[in-house]
Amino acid sequence: MMYPVSMLSRLIDCPSMANIYRPTFEDGERPPGFRSPRARIGYELGTELIGASLWEVPPGEAAYLYHFHYSDEELVIVLSGRPSLRTPEGIRELEEGEALRFPLGEEGAHQILNRTETTATFLAISSHGRPDVVVYPDSEKIGVGERLPRGGGLRAFFRRSDGVDYFEGESPPGEHHGE
């Protein structure tokens, strides 16, 4: 089959390349207990609706806080080591090659941690690119994020106890400033 030159040049000139065996980890220091390097493969590739991250979890550390999403469905594939999975059902050790799905809502609450003496590595893939609400049950926080393909955008965290009434700070129509 013959392909037009323009199509071949697009196939050959693929600017978005990433390699999980030579990851580019994010810069920045994380607090003790959460010092797990993360390479945002999806960002490197320029994906808009799929997130992909490679995590290296050193002994005694967790990849992230215990949480669940209302918009982003996630799956994890263990590449090496034997990390532990925390869910509402408890904690269990994972095997190399094991694949897991975390559905939306409370039943999808999870945390990956490493209780062994060797580094564990996993690939996390998620739906992405839509605004998301994330709940952190341990600390009673809620996170909201715009989830832009290149990062950035609205991102904020709140204590659940700081909730306000829907009508707080509002005025009846016609009583707004500038009317």
User: Going by CATH, what is the homologous superfamily of the domain at 31-130?
Assistant: Jelly Rolls
Q: Calculate Rg over CA atoms.
A: 20 Å
Structural class label: mainly beta
The total beta strand count reads 12
Order of strands across the biggest sheet? 1-2-9-4-7
Q: DSSP strand (E) fraction?
A: 25-35%
Mean pLDDT: 89
Level of helix content? under 10%
CATH architecture of the domain at 31-130: Sandwich
Under CATH, the topology of the domain at 31-130 can be stated as: Jelly Rolls
Oligomeric form? single chain
Regarding CATH, which class of the domain at 31-130? Mainly Beta
Description:
The structure is a single chain. By secondary structure, the protein is mostly beta strands. It has a domain at 31-130: Jelly Rolls (Sandwich), CATH 2.60.120.10. It contains two helices and twelve strands. The chain has helices spanning 5-12, 41-45; strands spanning 38-40, 50-57, 68-69, 74-80, 84-87, 90-93, 99-102, 111-113, 120-127, 132-136, 141-145, 155-159. A five-stranded antiparallel β-sheet has the order 1-2-9-4-7. A four-stranded antiparallel β-sheet has the order 3-10-11-12, with no helix packed on it. Strands 6-5-8 form a three-stranded antiparallel β-sheet, with no helix packed on it. The longest helix is centred in the N-terminal third of the chain and has 8 residues, at 5-12. It is globular and about 65 Å long.
